[in-house]
Specification:
The complex is a heterodimer of chains A (320) and B (324). Chain A is of the alpha/beta class and 320 residues long. Chain A contains 9 helices and 12 strands. In chain A, helix 3 packs across helix 4. Chain B has a domain of 89 residues. Classes of the chains: A alpha/beta (320), B alpha/beta (324).
Chain lengths: 320, 324
């Protein structure tokens, strides 16, 4: 059996905020014991709604946010035990593509400089070699080297996202964590970027951890999918199994809520009541129980463990 | 029967110091009583400007040409005062961002009560009672307490419910909804769409729904208008649009969408990007990105041709047959 490239065990991030001198500290459980395994060459997606902790999970894996607890094994090494110099070295193999292509590129640097920076940071090549690599990379993502002297504001959203991908790719990483990389784009541009990401994955044998709220995009790009709700993974399965036989009541509701672009189809929709509770004050037991239509007594008191229901389909629910 | 809303040859231009930028180029559309018409397109296609033109909410440096008739009455020749009497009363609007479109300094109750007092002449107590009733209708729990809350105390879904309650306050005949669910999570979007359908069916409201999401269109609309670069490129009955899309842009848009129900190897992306306003192509505006572009497409912009009783398309692929 192949070794996983990334293995996250019981990853936890609690943000604490203190309001007032005498008040007790408030704990926001943004990520609450997430386990996740990613094998080389596959695309694993984390999907969930705003505030479920999917982005925080992505950032904790890179230690851009310092996790509160848990282990992050990347290529047989626990990232959490590394000091800063070692961490920087490790990050050469794990890069991030950000959501907002407008906010994630330095407006005062040219595209050439933006793409060269990671090479400089990691001390790769001479100036001429770096230039060559930058020119090659900009071509790979579908832009031309004449554009290297331009500034980010001269590019459209889709082009900027190509630049963001080029910057992540220039170090030839093994893992790319893509945090909502196509959410800010129009659908025709979104399709271009998704195709590009799939081509690059084949060409460079990349592994993706893809974070998104869009269930259709996730279905398209993923091999396996993890559904998060309120800081916890509630269901993990391979794509086919998850979309065809969703087991957790939350996953079922989430999938049924997506409007399908087919006027002939009349799906029976499961409408969830109310909003997601605040992660500062999550419900006891199963965190989904106040909105669940199958809620039982046990759900209110006991947290359901993530169990393997069928082959490689894991669900955290008391229902059988 | 007169149409609820009839826009003919609308041309909206922004007047700048040196130039006039025409954002909407000859848009014509009709919304019949009780009908929901969707306007779809990507960023910058002019769908929002079209809706703001109807409401005349675009400010001073804007020139509106053509005609916008509401129940047969020309809106473009009304004075500001006359328009104010219609806005929020007979035509109401739901905006995309419920955070920025509610006033953060006023309570929910005051904001919903304002059109009630202004247009319907209710007194404070009557307005309060009606507000509570409206909030209950849109499914807000504890309505009696919520009216004293400020917008920041509510979640995104709740704020959008408040927006809908506010829009429905004077039971408008026409509701313009500009990306009403775009800022919301998918489970909350499902709640809001369900609510809009309920409100529509109870009051027989006509809706002009502006969206970029073809899934929302398929679910809500009777008829659809596809816009590209400030022009209508296709108009069709909703089933027709999804079954037999005529315009290459509409087909491209449908092909670009990843599906929730099937596995696809690759998406049929549309190459390139939307042209800038200052650099509009001379011929068909979609020609530079069109896989089926011909010689004529690069030189001459086609008219919006009637293909059948229920379908129109702006494309030379169909124009040639017409000419023969």
């Amino acid at each position: 059996m192949t070794q996983p490239l990334l293995e996250v065990k019981a990853l936890t991030k609690h943000f604490t905020s203190k309001q007032g001198f005498f008040n007790k500290e408030k704990v926001v459980r943004a990520v609450d014991g997430v386990n996740l395994t990613v094998y080389p060459g596959e695309t694993v997606s984390i999907v969930g709604e705003s505030g479920c902790g999917k982005s925080t999970t992505g950032r904790c894996i890179l230690r851009l946010i310092e996790p509160t607890d848990g282990e992050i094994w990347f290529e047989g090494e626990n990232i959490r035990n590394l000091n800063e110099a070692e961490l920087r070295k490790a990050r050469r193999n794990m890069q991030l593509v950000f959501q907002d292509p407008f906010a994630s590129l330095n407006p005062r640097k040219t595209i050439g400089q933006i793409l060269e920076d990671p090479l400089i940071v990691h001390g790769i090549g001479s100036a001429a070699e770096r230039r060559k690599q930058v020119e090659e990379m900009i071509g790979i993502v579908g832009l031309s080297k004449q554009q290297l002297n331009r500034f980010p504001h001269e590019f459209s959203g889709g082009q900027r996202q190509r630049i963001g991908i080029a910057r992540a790719l220039i170090l030839r990483p093994k893992l790319i964590i893509a945090d909502e990389p196509v959410s800010a784009l129009d659908v025709s541009i979104q399709a271009q970027i998704l195709n590009l990401m799939q081509d690059l994955q084949k060409e460079f044998k990349l592994t993706y951890l893809f974070i998104s709220h869009d269930l259709s995009v996730v279905r398209h790009i993923s091999d396996r999918v993890a559904v998060m709700y309120l800081g916890k993974v509630v269901e993990v399965a391979d794509k086919k199994s998850l979309y065809e036989k969703p087991t957790h009541p939350y996953t079922q509701a989430l999938l049924s809520a997506v409007p399908v672009p087919d006027p002939h189809q009349t799906t029976q929709r499961i409408i969830l009541e109310g909003d997601m509770p605040s992660p500062a004050n999550p419900p006891a037991g199963c965190t989904f129980h106040p909105r669940c239509r199958h809620c039982m007594e046990i759900c209110k008191t006991t947290v359901p463990p993530l169990k393997e229901q069928t082959a490689s389909h894991w669900v955290s629910c008391h229902l059988e | 029967m007169t149409a609820m809303l009839q826009i003919s040859d609308l041309r909206t231009s922004f007047l700048q110091a040196k130039e006039k930028l025409t954002v909407i180029e000859g848009v014509s559309l009709t919304v019949e009583p009780g009908e929901t018409v969707g306007v779809v397109g990507e960023s910058g296609c002019g769908k929002s400007v079209t809706s703001l033109s109807v409401m005349q909410l675009l400010g001073r440096n804007v020139q509106l040409e053509g005609s916008i008739r509401f129940q047969g009455k020309e809106l473009l020749s009304l004075t500001d005062k006359q328009m104010e009497a219609i806005r929020g009363n007979q035509i109401a609007m739901i905006f995309q961002e419920p955070m920025t479109s509610l006033n953060p300094l006023h309570t929910i109750g005051k904001q919903i009560g304002e059109p009630l007092r202004r247009h319907l002449g209710l007194n404070r107590q009557q307005a309060k009672e009606r507000t509570i009733q409206l909030l209950k209708e849109v499914g807000i729990p504890r309505a009696e307490e919520i009216i004293n809350d400020y917008p920041h105390q509510l979640s995104g879904g709740m704020r959008q419910r408040v927006m809908i309650a506010m829009a429905m306050a004077c039971t408008p005949k026409l509701l313009i909804a500009d990306e009403p669910t775009t800022a919301l999570d998918v489970t909350i979007q499902a709640q809001i769409l369900e609510l809009m359908k309920k409100v529509r069916d109870e009051h027989g409201t006509s809706i002009l729904l502006i969206t970029h999401d073809l899934g929302v269109v398929a679910e809500m609309c009777h008829r659809v208008i596809v816009m590209y670069a400030g022009q209508i490129v296709e108009e069709a009955d909703v089933k027709q649009l999804f079954d037999e899309p005529k315009h290459p842009y509409t087909r491209g848009l449908l092909g670009s969408m990843p599906s929730l129900n099937t596995n696809q190897e690759r998406l049929d992306a549309i190459p390139g990007a939307v042209p800038l306003l200052q650099e509009m192509p001379a011929g068909c505006r979609f020609a530079p990105r069109c896989p089926e572009a011909m010689e004529i497409c690069r030189n001459k912009n086609p008219e919006l041709l009637t293909i059948s009783d229920t379908q129109k398309c702006r494309c030379w692929l169909y124009g040639e047959e017409e000419a023969q």
